[in-house]
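pls ignore typos typing on phone
zinc ion + seq
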Amino acid sequence: MNTFAKLDAWLGNKTSRPTGQRGTRVRRIEGGIAVQYHNTDVVTHYADGTIVLNTDKYNTPTTRSRINQYQSVIHTFSHKGLMRWSHGGGYNAEARLFTDGLTIKADGTVCGYVDNEAELQAERKKVRVFADQFAKAWSEGNVGAVSNGDCFFCLMCDVATGKPMPGGDHLMSHIEESYFVPSLLRNAMMEVPTSAAHKSAVFSTMAGQPNSWCAMRDGWVKDTAKVLRRYITRQAGLGEAR
Ligand SMILES: [Zn+2]
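k done
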């Protein structure tokens, strides 16, 4: 009995049912049954035995845990900030990068993922350099307040959560153009946990009133670069950054 059949039996005549785990439910979708964690279908089982895995770019312990619980073919884990998978369960010679859309066929074949570590590390380095330059520009008063002149995708972000509109992949174009978008910094400050004092320093400087934080300038610049690095790395689908 495959997992699809088990989930199908468990659902019975229901279209959706909570699993009892935080933020998690099983629901019927066209042609299959999905395990949904928050807003993401992390594991989708199809009647023919195909399994599709997805994180919506969230390489978090709980996301990986749900993926590992609701299929038994591969095991996912994080190593050096990147989500990976292997059959055995940990980092070994067989381990590969995980990317969204990874597909396990009924015969156990794994496909549909990108495994180019060198390319990914080069992209991550670009983000680090950009975040450092962006933070320096901010500390010198060269990143102004959020305005309608900002990039459309960054400006139209959900302000409460920092989640970008569909089109978040455009962040790499800002890096190519060294475009320090005020909205991008705002979004990062909303999404990545940081201190209230740091937030206050960032927003007052953007508003042209930097005096209150001068004494801690070096620390704030480093913290601002870190927030930008972590936000962009995640939103661009490049894993997690420290
Ligand atoms: Zn943008």
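The longest strand covers residues 40-46. The pocket of zinc ion is lined by residues 151, 153-154, 170, 174, 181, 184 (CB under 6 Å). more later
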